[in-house]
Amino acid sequence: MAKKMISIWFFIGLLLTVYGVLILGAGIYDLIVPGRHNVVLRELHAGVWWGALLIVIGIVYLVFFRPKRTGK
User: pTM for this structure?
Assistant: First the structure.
C-alpha cells in the first residue's frame, strides 16, 4: 500500500498564502495606525500590495498543486 506523496509546490503555496496574510495584516495595521518614523514612499502602501500579491500567488499554487483524491 504505497501512499501518494504531496507535491512540495502545494506546501510552498500554503507558505506564500500564510506570509501574504501576515504581511497584508501588517500593511493594513500600518494604514490605521501610522508609525512614528517617516518612511520614504509610505503613500504607496507596499505592505498591502505585497501581501495581496503573495495571497494571490499562494492560492494559485494551492489550486494547481492540490493533492488529488484517489477513489476506491
Answer: 0.85
| Distance separating alpha carbons of residues 7 and 21, to the nearest angstrom | 22
- CA 66 to CA 52: how far, in whole Å? 21
DSSP secondary-structure letter at 37?
Answer: S
d(C-alpha 13, C-alpha 58), whole Å:
4
Contacts of 67 (CB under 8 A, 6+ apart): 4, 6, 7, 10
Question: By CB neighbour count within 10 A (0-12 exposed, 13-18 middle, 19+ buried), where does 46 fall?
Answer: middle
Q: Is 9 helix (H, G, I), strand (E, B) or coil?
A: helix
Chain segment 4-61, per-residue pLDDT in tens: 788 999 999 999 999 999 999 999 999 999 888 888 888 899 999 999 999 999 999 9
